[in-house]
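As a warm-up, study this chain.
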Amino acid sequence: MRNRFLYRLTRHTIRAYAQLLFRLRIHWRAPLPPGRKLIAANHPSCTDPFVIPLLTKLEIRILITGKAFKVPLFNDLLRRCGQIPVVPGSGRDALDQARECLEADGTVAIFPEGHISPQEGGHLPARPGAVRLAMLTGTPVIPVGIHYPREKSIRIKSRIAGGEESDGYWYLAGPYQVTVGEPMYFSGDPDDHQQVEEASLLLMEEIAHLAEESRLRMHNLFPVPVTVD
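Now compare it with the structure written out below.
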């Protein structure tokens, strides 16, 4: 069962951290639509799932790698905040939970790449989950482009349940630029692989475009007023 008080407390804590150590800037091309929505962002580092909740005061259920749920302390926090583990071989379970949330007019966030973006730059191809969820539920997809200096990311190793080691890139301080795009709508047959693949390509292209816009804005090359939530 989700602990709404813990979710709000965690969000306030992250917001305070972001104000202190991030130069967080969020630009909105359009307001978030009412009702159900699926936020789809690029994924430069492990930090991103913790910043996504700052986009809205609404509770967001985020699809996060199952490994994060095996890290001491994180495991309990993520589960009690209602986040959704994506376990290899059991991806359908995660999508079913996300679909249930969307059908109840909730808000879900997903990283279509499925893994951390290449540290040398660029993005991974989008997996089909985001588009399939949109087609199945009629939910608008909100593309989000994140940018910060990846060379400042830190590789951190952690020991997870069972004694296994896991490592990932974390961004802990510095400028953090986010561009929130206009809603995208996808209709069609969620079981038609070609339709889903083509729509996923369009979604990832828009996310990449927004991430580039964030990069240009960070370097004052995109003179648009910035709105901070």
